[in-house]
Structure formats: C-alpha cells, structure tokens
Design a protein that fits this description.
With 838 residues, the protein is of the alpha+beta class. Helix content is 51%, strand content 11%. The chain contains 27 helices and 21 strands. Strand 15 and strand 16 form a beta hairpin.
Length: 838
C-alpha cells in the first residue's frame, strides 16, 4: 500500500499557535513537521488507533508484526518516517524525544505521554523500529492534532455578539499590527536593557573590588597625614615648616635630612621612647613596615636651552636653562643625559634609564640611618641639586600585612626655571596579590563574566555592522548612526582595560621579589620600584571613570523601551546637532578669554601661569568655585577688562543659548510625540513605565506562576503569537469583523479569545462611510486604504479648529464685557437729533 504523496506541514504557528488541545496557552515556539494526509503504512493499526482516538481511553492493542505485508516502497516510507522521529539517529526513539515532537505539533504533554506508553509495548523507555512499524504513528498524530483544534463556531454566539457593543462592525488590523510590532521592539529593548544593566552592575562590582577603595583610602590618608602634615624646626630656629611649605632648594635638603631621614623614615623607637624590636623596626604608624630604603631621582635640562639667545648677555649670564614639562620628560631632546662631577666627593653622577618613562640620575639608600645621613650630606656638598635640576623625586615602599597591600609613596618637587618650587606627595596602593583569598576567586568569576559579556556584545556589534554593510553596500555604514559609534567606543575602551589589568596582575615586580626577615627587594637586589605599575594603575582607574561615563550615555539608548522615558533620548538626539554647533562657538569664546586671562594675570596669579590651569580657573568663575576678588586684588583695571565682559557673555549669551538649544530640542520632541498620539500608536505612547515593567515581569515569570494560563495578563496570546495570527492581513488596514471571523475559521484560536485580543488593542471601529469591499474591487492593490488615517487626522484637525474658534469667541465676549464697544453710527446720529434722548 503506497503512501499518499500529498503532505501537510503541522506547525505551532499554523496549527494551534501555542495553545494545547484544551484551549490553554502553553507558550510553545514555532516548529513544523510534515506528515502524510492519508494512506500511510500499517493501515490496520491506523484504523484501530483512530477508532479509539480518545487516547485517554485508548486500550493497549497488540498488533501482530508481519513484515511480508509491506512492499519495498512501503518499507522505504516507514524507514523515512522513523528517521524523521529519530532525531539523534541512534536507531530508536526515546520517549522524551517522542513527547517533544508531539508537543511541538500541538498536543499536550499528557496526551503525548499516553501515546508514547501505547507505542512502547515492552516498556523499555524507547520505541524501536518494530514497535514503530506496527502502528500508524504519523496518522495518529495528525488525527490527534485535528481533534485538538478549538474551531470557531459557524455562527456568532449570542453572548459574544451581545458583548461587542456598538461601533464594532469593523476591525483596525493595521493598528493591531503596528502596536504589536512597537511593543515587540520595546520588549527587545527592555530585555537588552536588563541584560546590559546586569552586565554594568557586575562590571562595577568587579572594578570596586579591584580598587578596594576603603583600605586604599585609609592607607593613603594616614601616610599622607604622617609625611605631609609633620612639621620640623628650620635650622635658623625661627619657624616650623612642613613638606608643602618648601620654597627653596635649601628647604628641600632641610626637609629630607632633618624631617624625613631624621624622624619620619627611620623610626627606631616606640611612642614611649623605648627602642623597637627587630621585628617592629622601621615601621610607620605601627602597621606599615618599610620594605627597604628610599631612592632619590632628579632630571636635569641641558644648558643653553632658554629662549634668550642674544650673545650680548652671554658675558653677564653664561648659563641659560629652558623649561621641561610632564615631570621633566618633554621635550625629550632637551633632557640632560651627560654625567656631572661632584667637587666635594670627587664622584661622577651618571644618567640612567630604568624603563621607557623612568629616567634620570638615581641615588639609592639602604635602611641604615647613619649611612643615609652621611650620603645626604655628601650629595648636598656636591651640589647634586643644581641650577639644571628641574624635577626631584623621593620614593619608597611600605607593606601593610593587615590588608595585604603595598603603598608606594612619592614626594616630588617641580623646580621651575624661575626658581619656583612646587612640592607634591602621592600614595599609590596596590595589593600584594590579586588572586589569593576565597573572595578573590569570586571576583575572578565575575571578571570572567565581564569578559564573556564583552565578547558577546562585540559579536553582536559585528553582526550589526555586517548586516548594515550588506544592506547599504558601504563599509562605513555602521558608523552613520551615533549610537553605534558610542557602542564601538565602549567596547574598545573595555578591551584596553582588559589588557591593562592583565599587565597589572602579571607585573614581574611582584612575582619576582626577594623576601627576607629585614626587607623586600627586587630580583636584582634593588629597592622596590612601583613607578611603572603606579602609572598603569592610575591609567587603569582613570579610564574606568571615563568608561562609566560612556555607560551612562549608552543607557540613554535603552530608554526608548518606554515612550515617556524615550523622550529624554529623542530630545538628546534632536538637540545634539545644535549643541555641537554651539560648542564650537563656546570653545572659541573660552579660548579667547583664557588667552586674555594669561596675558593680564599670568605674571600675578598662579592659576593663570599655564594655559590649562587658566581654563580650569575661568570655568570656575562660571560655576562659582573661583573667587573673582583675586583678580581685583592682582590688577583692578585688568579685572574690569576681563571679568565683566566674561560674566556678561556667559550670563546673557552662553547660558541662555544653551537653554534655548535644549528647549528647542525638547519642543521638537514634544511635537513629534503629540503627532504620534493621533496615530495608531497612541496606546503605546501613553503606556506607563511601571505598568510596562509589571507586564514584562509577569510574562517572563509565567512558568513559575501556578495556573498561569488563568492569570489576566497571561490568558491572552503573547505579542509574537498575535503577530503570527494577523500576518496574512499585513496589507489590509480595516476589515469587517464578519470577514475577519471567516478568515480565522481555520486558525486555532477561539472566538472569545479573538474578541478579547481585538479589545485589548482597542481595534474595534465603526463602519466606514464608504464601501471598502467595493473600493477594493476598483483598486486591488489596496492603496485606497491609506485614506482612512488621513481622514481621521482631518477630522481631528477640524475638531481642534472648532475648539480654537470657540475659545477665541469666549475671549472676545470677555473683552466686550470689560471694554464695551462704541454705539453704531446710526445710534449716534439719532441721539444728536433728539437732543440726547431717544
């Protein structure tokens, strides 16, 4: 017996659309399976199965397996069908495999389990080929699916007709589709926003744990207070000074010899004046133990590098030094690299390079206090800090075992060619090991999640770029959208941060230490040098700050999940071109006033000596943290010329224009949303965000809600299912309800649900004033349907005009009551003839 060559594809989208045989939504996805219509093999078994189609009452029937009753073609058909069910190709069909196929084509799991029990005759948990061939499995499934269809009734039930009410003769299909698509897009954005916020929260947790801000702040604050706040009595015996009071090279030597070496660094006694034990020796603030000695570094500039080049002054001032920048490293060609001679000791001091950004003349000191005092005296007598010196650094390292961290302290002095010395003190804290304790491995797991999330986002952006390239044929089509550029910048910064963190963690300075009872040194015996690592750590966390700013900008993109929140994003996009153009004018204005400030006050106020410092100070006048009285104290005439025009420009032009640009963008956005409220998307525009979140949460948690199909939010089909139901009506805008019912007779949704779906999207509408079917005959392409929204908009505009006219009339009547109009000309003439009496 040959199988019927015709076939039918049973699919969730086209079969029961996610509803099981009891009419209950089961949330199934789209899946299809092609089965023969009639005449499949084993007709005897098929007849017995169909005779007892109610599987709950289907008896266990033994069918004698007689291979000789099938022809070769029939055997080929049976084998093909068996291989279709045997998804993994292991030669038999597992019960769960069979149940999964049954639920995909629309059967409930209960019915599928009963079918599997009937086919698995020996109860071994699988359906082998002999058991499969004894029965018409495909025919049974086809008939079971047909019986599970909740068909629409031929006539509309009275209770449904009574519940429709007036103005329900037609359905706005276009509105349903537009609203559903908009909500699906919003749902995608909302889920993407949820994933991204989870990713950002994990990312922030990882960075904060890496930073260990609490311990780092406590260590750095205590050490800064100790070394910077401590005062010493100057050799002249007239005043006390601290690190920040240094103004001369002599002060630098005094602070180093008297305060730092004499009492702060080599601390051999307890607070009760008793000598410390060997274990506690050289401890700072009891808990921070010095890892070794300290190091002095200086950088010098070559002679004859100043701007003054007139030979006439050579005899009077033979030495002339320019200025170096960025810790006396720029420009590098002016940095002095030649050795210089010490007249007191007779030693030669050589220039060295530790690594790319760490060069200079180095002097290293041990933990022996007497040796350090003698060598400092020798350096001072050798004039080691001379006229060519432009930067001095004193650095050392400590270890705190309580928090397992190193502290790298740097006291630096900028020596300007004018004689000005600017002291500074910085502390960089880094952990002794980043993967030691149990919580470190928890952070490691989170770091892996962050890297995996970055890889997933990168892959998604790559797919978007490839899709845009295929659509437009342009290589740079991806960068045509602002948000894509922001996303790419975010991902590139994350990649930079990843490699920087790998560099910090794998730093050989930590991994190759020599730890003894008295000190911790590097592999070559030199004191700990965290200069390179400190620079990497500063770059790492500063970049994280900028990256979090990019995260805030990215969050603006996700606000479009809700129309109300999306107003901020749309307003930003609308005002962005105006702000960028205005920023150019603002930049020019700030540049000109900065130049004016440097010219007028650069020789009198420290904040105006450098251009960047002047920019910061000028912005302080705008925000309010800079004191304008400093200008009047330095130069009253210059203050009038500079401050009042600057304040007038900022107060009456820059700030108002900025607000105007923002308000224009906001007004444009409001007009756009007001226009959208008169379209089919009004329901989406007016949706509250809390209600939207609640709906999305209920939908996402439906499988954890008992009897979720009875929940008012889950009883109706999901948005994707509604879109599949109305997919065939994509080119139709308005259709009569009767015709819609007729088209839905073959779809697996009850009429009650259909009516509730239409009501949910507020898509019922009265009969149009023209005959749509008749118009459709003259215009088969359906172009006439575009008139419906235009007429609705015209009607709304006419109603608005009537309301405006009525409002204007009321205002005129009020004015007439307040200011009565003069009498007509005829009344005046009659009044004059009657002598003032009518």
């Amino acid at each position: 017996m040959a199988a019927d060559p015709r076939g039918v594809k049973i699919s969730v989208a086209g079969a029961n659309n996610g509803y099981d045989d009891s009419g209950t939504h089961n949330g199934a996805g789209t899946a299809s399976y092609k089965v023969p219509l009639q005449g499949s093999p084993s007709a005897a078994a098929a007849a017995k199965a169909k005779a007892a189609l109610d599987v709950s009452n289907m008896p266990e029937q033994e069918v004698e397996f007689q291979p000789e009753q099938f022809t070769n073609d029939e055997w080929d058909e049976i084998r093909r069908q068996f291989s279709d069910f045997d998804l993994d190709g292991n030669g038999y069909i597992e019960i769960e495999e069979f149940i999964g196929l049954c639920t995909q084509v629309g059967l409930s799991r209960e019915r599928a389990e009963k079918l599997s029990m009937m086919y698995d005759e020996d109860g071994d948990g699988v359906i082998d080929f002999s058991e499969f061939a004894k029965r018409d499995v495909v025919g049974d499934l086809q008939q079971a699916v047909e019986d599970s269809k909740p068909k629409l009734e031929a006539q509309e039930p009275e209770e449904i007709r009574a519940g429709l009410g007036e103005n329900t003769s037609h359905v706005n299909v276009a509105k349903i589709l537009q609203v559903v698509r908009a909500k699906i897009d919003n749902s995608k954005i909302a889920f993407a926003f949820g994933r991204y916020m989870l990713y950002v929260c994990i990312y922030i947790y990882v960075v904060m744990y890496q930073r260990n801000p609490q311990d780092s702040l406590r260590i750095s604050t205590s050490l800064r207070n100790y070394f910077v706040g401590s005062e010493y009595l100057a050799p002249n015996g007239m005043e006390t000074k601290s690190l920040m009071d240094i103004v001369t090279v002599e002060d630098v030597w005094d602070w180093t010899q008297i305060n730092f070496v004499g009492g702060l660094f080599y601390n051999d006694k307890y607070y009760n004046d008793a000598f410390r034990t060997r274990v506690d020796r050289n401890s700072v603030l009891e808990h921070n133990k010095l890892t070794g000695g300290f190091r002095l570094t200086q950088r010098r500039i070559r002679n004859d590098t100043c701007l003054e080049g007139r030979a006439s002054f050579k005899r009077f001032a033979p030495n002339c030094y320019g200025e170096l920048y960025v810790e006396a490293m720029v420009p590098f060609n002016l940095v002095e690299k030649e050795p210089f001679y010490g007249p007191f000791s007779g030693k030669t001091y050589n220039w060295e390079r530790k690594w790319f950004w760490d060069v200079g003349y180095y002097q290293e000191f041990t933990k022996d206090k007497e040796d350090a005092v003698a060598r400092l005296h020798e350096l001072r007598m050798d004039n080691w800090i001379g006229p060519a010196t432009q930067w001095i650094r004193l650095d050392f390292a400590l270890y705190n075992p309580n928090v397992g961290s190193y502290a790298f302290c740097v006291a630096s002095f900028e020596v300007r060619p004018t004689g000005l010395i600017i002291p500074n003190f910085e502390v960089t804290v880094r952990r002794s090991g980043y993967y030691i304790a149990t919580q470190d491995y928890i952070r490691l797991a989170m770091e892996v999640v962050v890297v995996a999330g970055w890889a997933a986002y990168t892959w998604g952006e790559f797919l978007d770029a490839r899709r845009l390239y295929k659509q437009s044929g342009k290589m740079l089509a991806y960068f045509s959208e602002f948000w894509n550029a922001v996303d790419l910048l975010h991902l590139v910064i994350m990649l930079m941060l990843f490699f920087t963190w790998v560099y910090i963690v794998s730093d050989s300075t930590i991994s190759e230490l020599i730890i003894t009872e008295d000190q911790i040194t590097m592999a070559n015996g030199a004191p700990l040098d965290f200069t390179e690592t400190a620079l990497a750590i500063r770059f790492y966390y500063a970049t994280h700050g900028f990256n979090l700013l990019i995260c805030v900008v990215r969050i603006l993109k996700f606000l479009r999940q809700n129309a109300f929140l999306g107003q901020l994003t749309d307003a930003f996009e609308l005002m962005r071109p105006g702000l960028l153009q205005f920023a150019v004018v603002l930049f020019i204005s700030i540049f000109m006033f900065t130049a004016m400030g440097v010219i007028l006050f650069g020789s009198k106020i420290q904040e105006f000596t450098a251009f960047l410092e002047a920019v910061d100070n000028i912005m302080g006048y705008t925000i309010g943290y800079s004191d304008p009285m400093d200008l009047f104290g330095a130069d009253s005439v210059g203050a009038i010329v500079f401050y009042y025009p600057f304040t007038f420009l900022m107060a009456f032009f820059v700030l108002p224009l900025t607000v105007a640009v923002i308000m224009d963008g906001y007004g444009e956005m409001q007009a756009m949303y007001e226009a959208a409220r008169s379209t089919n998307l009004a329901d989406v525009i007016n949706l509250d965000y809390p209600d939207q979140l609640y709906r999305g949460f209920i939908r996402s948690m439906q499988f954890f809600i008992p009897h979720h199909h009875r929940h008012p939010r889950l009883r109706l089909p999901a948005k994707e299912e509604v879109l599949r139901l109305f997919a065939d009506l994509n080119k139709i805008e308005i259709i009569s309800y009767a015709e819609l019912r007729k088209m839905f007779r073959d779809k697996f949704i009850s009429e009650e649900l259909l009516v509730e779906v239409i009501k949910k999207y507020n898509a019922f509408r009265p009969d149009p004033q023209w005959d749509l079917p008749a118009a459709a005959e003259g215009n088969p392409d359906g172009d006439h349907l575009e008139l419906a929204p235009l007429i609705e908009q015209l009607q709304l505009r006419a109603d608005q005009l009537v309301r405006d006219q009525q409002s204007m009339q009321r205002k005129l009547d009020l004015l007439c009551e307040i200011f009565p109009p003069p009498p007509p000309a005829e009344s005046i003439e009659m009044l004059s003839k009657s002598g003032g009496k009518f």
